[in-house]
Amino acid sequence: MGDILFLAHRVPFPPDRGDKIRAFNIIRYLSERKRVHLVAFADDPADLKRKSGLAKLTGNRQIVWRSKPQAWAGVQSLLSHRPVSLTAFDNAEVHRAVESMLARHAIDTIYVFSSQMAQYVPLRPRQRVVMDFVDMDSAKFASYGETSRGFTGWMMRREARLLAAHERAIAARADASLFVSEEEAQLFRARTEAERVHAVCNGIDTSIFDPGAQFKRIDTMGALIVFTGQMDYRPNIEGVTWFVETILPHIRLRHPKARFAIVGRKPTDAVKALAKHPGVTVTGEVADVRPWLQAASVVVAPLKLARGVQNKVLEAMAMARPVVASAAAATGIDHGGTIEVGETVGEIADAVNRILADPKTGAEFGALARQRVIDHYSWDARLSVLDDIVGLRGRNDRRLDRPAAA
């Protein structure tokens, strides 16, 4: 069996946000079975310094700084009739790095993590191509287009249309197209009629996300509601804004001392401004989210738009915390009724109020949620489907029949 070339739109280390967690664990799983080489972008200066954390998991690595301004990517998109998602990641150095890796190493599989990186796959590859879309990005931009006006709305709808065509073309060329949940995979099948589409769900390391693990605790007074996430990501921004402005007031009527902590790196000015509301704290980046999850009376995921599986929900469940999630945030999670799901302001507020009023029942919910994660969400169990998809069982390595590239 040959090696694997893993292409990622962001350095998958440290595994401290959703996409990096998934990519890191897939690389870890694959590296235990094959030699993995990595070509990836870095968009955080700290990641350039910390990339050595991948040394034990990968053979050769090429990390390229992504410096193209978004405005210039937008101009290139308009001039080339390509999605901004592609022009933003179009980089000559990465093209050369991929060509060099394929020329120097006996690679039999190219694993593409996120559709932005598919532009680096040769037009007629001799290798197996596994396309991990994770989510259907075109559907996300279509949702943005429905709620945005003017030029922004036009750009979102344009992006959705062009990305949908790009996704369809990639799937036609790939040996396998992967998504983070069966719901997302089924949506892709329905909209593209693509074949060879599989769900490879996220897992979680319950030895790390364990309320009994060793980590520094924080002192809290009274009821604490916690949200965790990357706070420059639009769905997270919209979710916490909705919660603070419309849901939290209903909770504080019943529990006037309840506090809401927004925990996550790179909070935008709009997120920071939420700290002006009574009882709201915006922490910014923290070294470890587990102390905040451990201290939470309830963890919320009030996302109006969510694609795939929300790691933030799995992490809270693993930490044995009662969780209240929107229907969108709960989609794709096999929670078995161990979390509260609400759709409206009233449903979410009522669920949080019930938990705050009855901590014992909340603790029981949390314990059931942790057991659910232990039983259903170990990474190795979730990723075992890759054995056949990536050819890890020593099967005949003949590639699947598929149309030639145009």
Which series of helices and strands comes N to C?
EHEHEHHHEEHHEHEEHEHEHEHEHEHHHH
Radius of gyration: 22 Å
- Regarding quaternary structure, what we see is single chain
Give the class from helix and strand content and strand pairing.
alpha/beta
Number of helices: 17
Average pLDDT figure = 92
Terminal CA distance reads 29 Å
Largest sheet at a glance?
7 strands, parallel
How does the overall form come out from the CA principal axes? globular
Q: Identify low-pLDDT runs.
A: 395-406
> Roughly how much helix do the residues carry, as a percent range?
40-55%
Biggest sheet strand line-up: 3-2-1-4-5-6-7
SSE topology:
Layout: E1 3-8, H1 18-31, E2 36-42, H2 45-50, E3 61-65, H3 70-80, H4 84-87, H5 92-104, E4 107-113, E5 128-134, H6 137-147, H7 150-173, E6 176-179, H8 182-192, E7 197-199, E8 224-228, H9 234-254, E9 259-263, H10 269-273, E10 280-284, H11 290-295, E11 298-301, H12 311-318, E12 323-326, H13 327-330, E13 340-342, H14 345-357, H15 359-376, H16 379-383, H17 386-389
Helix pairs in contact: 6-7, 9-14, 12-15, 14-15
